Each structure stands twice: as C-alpha cells, then as structure tokens.
Amino acid sequence: MNFIVGGDFSHELSHRRYREAVDIIERELDTFFELKEYGERIMKIYCGVICGSKEFEQFLSVRPAKLLRKEPALEFEFKLDFQTYKAMNDEERLKYIASEYFKNLKDIFANKPIKGFDSELFIQDLEAFLTAEKLLI
C-alpha cells in the first residue's frame, strides 16, 4: 500500500513544521505498509489534513471520502481544531495529526464497508503500528 498525506493550513502556522509532521506520517506509513495488501480495491490512500483559523473557515471545507474510479485508491480529508493545534508543540502536533488520521479512517471504514478490501485487518494493523510508534493520543 501507498500513502499520500498533504495539508492545507492557515498562514498563521509554520509551513515547515506542519509539512514535517505530515511527511513523517506519510513516510512511516509507507514503510510499514509497503508489502501489506488488504485487497485490490484500495492500494493507495490519499489524505488531506485541514487546519485553518476562523478567518479562513469558510474556505476550508471537508469533502466526503470517496473511492477513486481510475485507480484503486481512497481519498479523504479531515479537519484539525486550529486553536488546539496552534497551542501544541511539535511532538504533540505529530500525535494529534496521526490520531485524527486514524480516527477518521476508522470512521470511514466503519460506516462504509468496501467490497474487495479487508478494512478490519487494515484498521487493526494501522492501530497496532501507530500504538507501537507512540503516535496515538
């Protein structure tokens, strides 16, 4: 499996810091899940992390999760609480992003079973990985 994690963050936040956090998560997920397969329906997961101040709230809406038609992939977005994120240090931010990533994926798969993908095993493996890496809050 392959993971792509991007972000859309308010200008008040350091681009370098949030980019480092999502890069770490993306790289670690890719390494751990590189040889794992859960079915042919999802081979890649695209994620957009959104964190914006109230000033930009109207421009930063979360689109619903969707399975892509042209490739075996899932695309989803989630929003972080701006004030919570802003008050955290770098380690806490990394854990916050990873925990919200997990929570949102778990909710997606709980609400929408996907034929041709073992979401239960994937979520178990994801939780075990994030727990072992001490990335879950």
Structure explained in plain terms:
With 137 residues, the chain is an alpha/beta fold. 45% of the residues lie in helices and 18% in strands. The protein has helices at residues 15-33, 82-87, 90-111, 119-132; strands at 2-9, 44-51, 66-67, 73-79. A four-stranded mixed sheet has the order 1-2-4-3. The relative contact order is 0.18. The model has no long low-confidence stretch (mean pLDDT 91).
| Topology order in helix (H) and strand (E) letters | EHEEEHHH
Number of helices: 4
Percentage of residues in DSSP E strands: 15-25%
Biggest pleated sheet: 4 strands, mixed
Write the layout of secondary structure elements.
Elements: E1 2-9, H1 15-33, E2 44-51, E3 66-67, E4 73-79, H2 82-87, H3 90-111, H4 119-132
Parallel strand pairs: 1-2, 2-4
Antiparallel strand pairs: 3-4
